[in-house]
Amino acid sequence: LKQEKASREQQLDYSHLEQEKELSDQPLDQALVKKGKQLERKKHELENRTQQEK
């Protein structure tokens, strides 16, 4: 029973790795663009706050 469980867990690990590989194969640009947009939004929010405080 232990062996069966271990092999099943290994298979799960492999499928997980496959998914990660697929994700990493995608252009990182997309993620960077998303992060950039989020940062821009945060900047704008901060600017708006400081303007309101004045």
TrEMBL record:
Region (Disordered): 1-29
Protein name stated in the entry: Involucrin
Lineage top rank: taxon: Eukaryota
Biased composition (Basic and acidic residues): 1-24
Organism: Mus musculus
